[in-house]
Amino acid sequence: MRQLRIVLAEDAVLLREGLVSLLERFGHSVPAAVGDGPSLVAAAREHRPDLVVADVRMPPAFRDEGLRAVRELQGEQPHLAAVVLSQYVEQTFAEELLESRHGAGTGYLLKDRVGDVEEFMDALVRVADGGMVVDPEVVRQLLARRRDPLGRITPREREVLGLMAEGRSNAAIARALVVTEAAVAKHIAGILQKLDLPPAPDDHRRVLAVLAYLRG
């Protein structure tokens, strides 16, 4: 697994220290671990990490300090990868984070999911490599609150698109659905066609498809 330089922001001391120990156990370095948004901004400016991991709600107001800090940093460093952690599914925050990405790897994960350590570490590396990872529970709850506008998408294509939203590769989707990679590629081609996403040099069509899926 690739080793990353990670700046961490989490106001709960025990969780913060536990995450630092976990990250270091997997070979990553954590040059700074802080407890509020301004400290995150300062630390990321100083250390220029591969990835920042931040809680959404931090002092002083416990609203969206972590999210605003991430957005500020990505405005300065457009390719800075970021994973935002949340205690609950917060629809507005998830949409704001995903829609504001500018080619940078982005993740939105629930804290309860960190219990699957290897999956969490894999998600961090995928985000650092430029991918987008959305917690499956976030996807489910976002979709439950929306009307389904993707009328032309088949049930199987919805399954494929949902797994794409979790950041899964074609091979991983094939394993999850017990189909061939060729079948997955065919489904993805159909999804992109139905969402009117032709090839374009400046667009990542998988990301655009996932955003369309989440926005509904």
From TrEMBL:
Residues 5-126 form the Response regulatory domain. Signal peptide: none annotated. Residues 146-216 form the HTH luxR-type domain. GO terms for biological process: phosphorelay signal transduction system; regulation of DNA-templated transcription. PROSITE patterns: HTH_LUXR_2 (PS50043), RESPONSE_REGULATORY (PS50110). It comes from Streptomyces finlayi. The modification 4-aspartylphosphate is found at residue 55. GO terms for molecular function: DNA binding. Coiled coil: none annotated. This is DNA-binding response regulator. Keywords: DNA-binding, Phosphoprotein, Transcription, Transcription regulation. It comes from the Bacteria.
